[in-house]
Amino acid sequence: MSLIDNIRNFAIIAHIDHGKSTIADRLIHSCGGLTEREMKAQVLDSMDIERERGITIKAQTVKLNYKAKDGKEYILNIIDTPGHVDFSYEVSRSLYACEGSILIVDSTQGVEAQTLANVYQALDTNHEIVPVLNKVDLPASDLERTKKQIEEVIGIDTENAIPCSGKTGEGIGDILEQIITTLPAPKGESSSDLKCLLVDSWYDTYLGVVILVRVIDGKLSKNMKIKMMSTNQEYVVEKVGVFTPKPVDITELKTGEIGFITTGIKVLSETKVGDTICEATKPLKEALPGFKPSKPVVFCGLFPVDSSEFQKLKDGLAKLQLNDASFSFEQESSSALGLGFRCGFLGLLHLEIVTERLEREFDVNLLTTTPGVVYKVHLNNGDTMDLQNPSSLPDLTLIKYIEEPWIKATIITPDQYLGSIIKMCQDKRGVQTNLSYSGNRAVVNYELPLNEVVFDFNDRLKSMTSGYASFDYEIIEHREGDLVKLGILVNGEPVDALAMMIHKDFAQKTGREVCEKLKDLIPRHNFMIPVQAAIGGKIIARETIKGFKKDVLTKIHGGGATDRKRKLLEKQKKGKARSKQFGRVEIPQEAFIGVLKISKEK
Fold first, then answer.
1. Nearest Cα to Cα of residue 534 among 564, 569, 500, 579
2. Can you give the pLDDT at residue 223?
3. How many Å apart are CA 453 and CA 322, to the nearest integer?
4. Which domains does the chain have, with CATH numbers?
5. What is the pLDDT of residue 72?
6. What whole-number distance in Å separates Cα of residue 204 and Cα of residue 398?
7. What is the mean pLDDT of the chain?
8. Is 570 exposed, middle or buried (0-12, 13-18, 19+ CB in 10 A)?
9. Contact predicate 532/520, CB 8 Å
10. Residue 363, CA distances (Å) to 266, 296, 355, 366, 527 in order
């Protein structure tokens, strides 16, 4: 038996909180990857924010040595993947590097939306799947119901499903044996020229860019001259290693193995995820298919509360992008908020994580504008432009029509909440495509505009179903929509940071809410301030902030003074008109934050 037959590469996939990282801990512990003293909960979640929130953001790999019951030594390469929909691109990359998956389902909760999404991704990648029923130590665990759900909803045979508990360690030995017997060994030619898949890359302060690779054919050794096929750049391999989960240096990676290399690259953009690596002297004719690049779907402006922190914010964004190539940023300026950046994210959780890391790691106080999606604007001259920022929408007379992104959403919920979920989806312009049942749980599919989902859909879904419903989505296409730009004017001046793209049917209601909120939040001045919401040149809502009134008539006594009174009042009126014309209205930060809250509550 050759060495490649003793390798098993597999990913751990599951819905959020079904126990992926805990079971990875147990597998590491039982294979002796770390000593008792070095073990800690969720050992693969290395970022502070991952440990605090209890979620996995970056996929992590581990190489373990396992002695099976048949007496043979096996090499297990585990990839622990994130469960949240915003990080599904991490999952798809990880699956390409493996031949099989362990599907973990919480036996107290059953199949959830993200379980489905991840399983379908694994099946599309032709993976063998080992179903595992976790949390059997809990009194609410129901193995038969969970097995039935897996068979009905996913269609996987659960005869050999393994009951286990990440907490107590029960069933971990069975999982390891099942991995050896069920999952296939990697295929590849060790005598061929080097062919390698670039799975991931990140920046390390001491080593530069660290590249995670999966060797498909041949071997990758230290001091070898390699070539990246997408950029045609050549490098010398300085370091080869594996994670056990501690980084360990080795001399070479053989066919079928997963490990990391460093080549002295300093810029992450030179390492394209999904690229093919070959030997510089023996180039390959064609590259591996790679993966689709992750595209940002949600955009928003990030501005420092104190304008002197702009440089700090710029440095922070550049450093974060070194370890997260999936978010983009470009500089923009706003007349109301000053200098800042327009940033693109994979979803709202991704946005939240990045802003939290900026505030925590780089100590920047941030203001976030209303998140929005990318619209396609078709112009009369036949051109198409991508619109990220509503304030850069061209003149209405030049526009033929506007398209917005639509998603296919899968919602799994106990059936008593179905009515309120359907009503919410209809309110958000959704189109129902399918509804099926598994026991007392409904699986409902909707097509929805991403713009309606991006703010608060998940939060509202969780609150109306007491946390029992789960939600997953994928972007399907752009469709024409009856969309307008809602502009906000304060004292006749447009405030670009508050402009938003919105469906025509909701424009008047939202405009009125924003004006009412601003009326409460903008302080009174010496003159009257109109706050207006407008579509193009048409005002659709207005509120007025009254000016302070100084009593200029108190000094005048006695009768017959009407002319003097009139003259003073006229003078005061002229002064107010002049100050209204030249006076600037300062809009406080609270006003922007208040308007963002409306958008979320809406």
1. 500
2. 86
3. 29
4. 3-182 (3.40.50.300), 195-279 (2.40.30.10), 298-369 (3.30.70.870), 381-387+394-481 (3.30.70.240), 485-601 (3.30.70.2570)
5. 82
6. 48
7. 78
8. exposed
9. no
10. 25, 25, 11, 9, 38
Which residue in 520, 546, 515 sits closest to 533, CA to CA? 515
Tokens at residue 7, please? 């390798």
The pTM for the full model equals 0.69
**CA distances from residue 591 to 255, 299, 337, 523, 602 in whole angstroms, order as listed:** 59, 20, 12, 10, 17
H or E element, residue 234? strand 233-236
Is-contact 403 482, C-beta < 8 A?
Answer: no
166/141 Cα distance (integer angstroms): 13
Neighbouring C-alpha atoms within 13 Å toward the C-beta of 332: 24
What are the backbone dihedrals phi and psi of residue 62, each rounded to the nearest 5 degrees, phi first?
-145, 140
Concatenated DSSP letters for 250-265?
A: ESEE-TT-EEEEE---
pLDDT band of residue 57 (cuts 50, 70, 90) is: very low
For residue 263, how many C-alpha atoms fall within 13 Å in the half-sphere facing its CB? 24
Q: Rounded CA gap, 593 and 602, in Å?
A: 14
| Cα separation, 425 vs 510, whole angstroms | 18
Quick check: 60 pLDDT over 80? no
The DSSP element (H or E) to which 149 belongs, if any, is helix 143-149
Query: What gap in Å lies between CA 453 and CA 448, rounded to an integer?
Result: 7
**Cα dihedral 375→379→384→388 (10° resolution):** -30
Give the three-state DSSP class for 302: strand
Token pair in block for residue 112: 């959830």
* Cβ-Cβ contacts under 8 Å for 307 (sequence gap 6 or more): 338, 339
Tokens linked to 232: 């045609």
Q: In which band, very low, low, confident or very high, does the pLDDT at 325 lie, cut at 50, 70 and 90?
A: low
Strand 399-414 relative to strand 470-481, pairing: antiparallel
The C-alpha atoms of residue 159 and residue 150 are separated, in whole angstroms, by 11
Contact in structure between 125 and 157 (CB atoms under 8 Å): no
DSSP E strands in 337-491: the ranges are 338-345, 366-368, 372-373, 375-379, 384-387, 399-414, 431-438, 441-449, 470-481, 483-490
Residues 6+ apart with CB under 8 A from 189: 217, 218, 255
Residue 584 φ/ψ, nearest 5 degrees: -95, 140
Virtual torsion, Cα 519, 485, 478, 328, nearest 10 deg: -70
d(CA 503, CA 535): 11
Is the per-residue pLDDT at 289 higher than 60? yes
Q: What is the mean pLDDT of residues 406-426?
A: 87
- CB 26: neighbour CB atoms within 10 A? 23
Q: How many CB atoms lie within 10 A of CB 544?
A: 12
Q: Which of 588, 7, 602 is nearest to 305 (CA)?
A: 588
Give whole-number Cα distances, 388 to 308, 328, 334, 342, 377, in Å. 26, 12, 15, 9, 10
Q: How far apart are CA 314 and CA 271, in angstroms?
A: 22
